[in-house]
Amino acid sequence: MLKKLNNYFQRLGKAFMLPIALISFAGIFLGISAAFSNPNVIAKMPFLGNSTLQMIFQFTKAVTGALFGNLPVLFAISLAIGLAKDETAVAGFSGFVGYIILNVTINFVLTATKTLAPAAKMTELGQGMTLGIQTLQLGVFGGIIVGMVTGALHNRFYTIKLPDYIGFFGGTRFVPIVTTFVFSLLGLFVPVVWPPISAAIQGLGYAIANLGYFGTFLFGLLERLLIPFGLHHILNAMFRFTPVGGEMVIGGKTIAGALNIYYAQLGAGVSSFSTEATRFLAQGKIPIMMFGLPGAALAMYRTAKPENKQRIKGVLMAGALASFVTGITEPLEFSFLFVAPVLYIIHSVLSGLSFMLNHVLGVAIGNTQGGVIDLVVFGMLQENTKWYITLAIGIIYAFVYYFVFKFVIEKMNLKTPGREEDVAFEDSVGLEADDLDAKALEIIRLLGGKSNIESVNNCFTRLRVVVKDMSLVDEKGFAKTGAAGVIKPSKTDIQIIYGPSVSSIKVAVTKQLKKIA
């Protein structure tokens, strides 16, 4: 039971990646547009006041604002797709149908019970507009529930066989039909059950807020500790998109969730951002991603055996660069997570302290990744962010990580990369770095062949595969394909860490699977 539950949360965490990747990318453009259309910035750089440039910036803000304004429906679609075992396009379509039906039904109940709020009091009474429908303000939480329920319905019914006289409506066609029926029923009860649920979620948010700086530390600590299990995405989503991350009235609307608050303030062109929102965002990651982990990489390189340094140099440099630029840390973290878990615990504690220090010192840098892009776009280009404090913390962290990692590795004789004993390193079976087809075929072979593979997906850095028989998998062989590590969450699930290039690898593997007879 526990393994099934863990497997489900693994897939749920992966499903969050699609919308999060989109809004992270869109957030960068929103940040640039907001900064360059700010009157104070224009005063310093008059050329930005050009009418054509300002029109482009306003257009960009309008496009990205549309994305952030429709996050619930994006989550409903993407989670349905991510949780579906097969026929993912049908699942996504059904998620959209389910979201519309749920809100139309809620609108019907509110109208029938004469509780539909007038326009001036919608926010006060917990109502709002979604896709042109006046409904309860379920926020992203509503989209998440729709996606999860739709995913379950899809997996249960997408292969259903109906009697011949109604056989046309069977199989995948039945999924949006049953989704319509289920959400029509659920929508009748939501106006009754949602108010106490909303109050409970808000109570949790207030409890965490009342922990103050210690609550910020706990968030940063847990965010790192959950990475090996792939559950950090769920923690992040809860704080970024629900009242757990705080609530604030911006432009007459009540905005819930730390990231939603930050982007709403960014779009409104405020002169200072809420540190109570940004304490859960990129500012706590910047010292870790840009400075700490590269320092750890240097420590691992310096403590490696002389004969192994050249071998691990490229891997560590690539991991450090990915962390510094994009905030993607798993290639580096998984290089020491399993061979030296004590280092990972130290890393998690330092992460929590980074979040807390930035909060204590009043830093206000938002977004999600924590790499140099976030520092420049959401720190240096915005007003009153105190980005220089994060930079100072980062420089200190570079030295702390380097000396702490170096001391612990040598003191405890930890077998970090390059310190392994009696390990015969194999070349990558003649695979060129850009020969994705050959690499894909080798990955399929290592997974036990096409017949042993149930499904293939990926998140930011991991190739996630469900296999029929784990004993047929050659786990050690994945290092030859450029993998930084392997995780086996269950008897049938295996995750191979490839870093930022994993999406291309997943596409190549899927293509080769279709070619194999």
From TrEMBL:
Q: Which CDD domains match?
A: PTS_IIB_glc (cd00212)
Give residue ranges for domain PTS EIIC type-1.
Answer: 3-421
**Matching Pfam families, A to Z?**
PTS_EIIB (PF00367), PTS_EIIC (PF02378)
- Top-rank taxon: Bacteria
**Transmembrane residue ranges:** 12-36, 56-83, 90-111, 131-153, 174-194, 206-227, 248-266, 286-304, 311-328, 334-353, 360-381, 387-409
| Listed SUPFAM superfamilies | Glucose permease domain IIB
PANTHER family hit by this protein: CYTOCHROME C-TYPE SYNTHESIS PROTEIN AND PTS TRANSMEMBRANE COMPONENT, PTS SYSTEM GLUCOSE-SPECIFIC EIICB COMPONENT-RELATED
Q: What protein name applies here?
A: PTS system IIB component (Glc family) /PTS system IIC component (Glc family)
Which species?
A: Fonticella tunisiensis
